[in-house]
Design brief:
7 helices, Cytochrome b/b6 domain-containing protein, Cyt_b561_bac/Ni-Hgenase, transmembrane, cell membrane, single chain, Hydrogenase_cytochrome, mainly alpha
């Protein structure tokens, strides 16, 4: 086995999964959790901020430069995968990379729109009173539509993981838990975690979340 996913990346992934599930539940099916919906959104924004920073200064497979490719390459990889002749990737494959980038961008948009919207009953986003009615209305519309897109993309992501696991007998879920994948002899070294870089990423993200929690809703 070879080390691929570092611990910060794995923690990010599973905390993101937990927050996403709770946010969908609290935003759609149980209004009594609306206050915690806002607070979970704050945590999500800090989590995304951490991932963006870690994608710059993290270990090799966590860095965006190691997996971000053009959409054309992602679509080409999908075609080759279903033909059974795709190339093996230790980190994110091109299709997975496309999904990661889309999810991060849409989650950023979802967080931003949530900060300026209101549930029109008890709770307002922390910046709701600071924007015009038109912008708040646009934010609410974006917030509603993007969440539907995110749910569809997450569903596709799960299907992609299942398909990849079946076609290539690769335990992707297990690798995101252990951080290890089967070594085929040509993996690039993951490198070690820079503790100073990690501390700075965590500090910036925590500071942002702390700021949000201090705002009235």
């Amino acid at each position: 086995m070879v080390k691929i996913w570092d611990l910060p990346t794995r923690i990010f992934h599973w905390v993101l999964v937990s927050l996403f599930v709770f946010l969908i539940y609290s935003g759609n099916w149980d209004d009594s959790f609306m206050k915690w919906h806002f607070y979970s959104g704050y945590l999500l924004s800090g989590l995304i901020l951490f991932r963006v920073l870690w994608g710059i200064v993290g270990t090799y497979y966590a860095r965006f430069c190691s997996f971000v490719v053009s959409p054309i390459k992602g679509l080409t990889y999908l075609k080759s995968m279903f033909k059974g002749n795709s190339t093996h990737f230790y980190g994110h494959n091109p299709a997975g990379a496309m999904m990661v980038v889309m999810l991060i961008l849409l989650l950023m948009l979802q967080v931003a729109s949530g900060l300026v919207t209101s549930d029109e009953v008890l709770w307002d986003g922390p910046f709701y009173a600071s924007v015009s009615d038109e912008l708040a209305s646009l934010g609410a519309e974006i917030h509603h539509k993007v969440q539907l897109i995110l749910q569809c993309l997450v569903g596709l992501h799960i299907l992609g993981v299942v398909a990849h696991s079946v076609l290539f007998k690769e335990k992707l879920v297990a690798s995101m838990i252990t951080g290890n994948k089967k070594d085929l002899g040509n993996a690039k070294p993951r490198g070690s975690i820079n503790p100073v870089a990690l501390l700075m990423c965590v500090a910036v993200s925590v500071a942002w979340v702390y700021y949000l929690f201090g705002l009235p809703i």
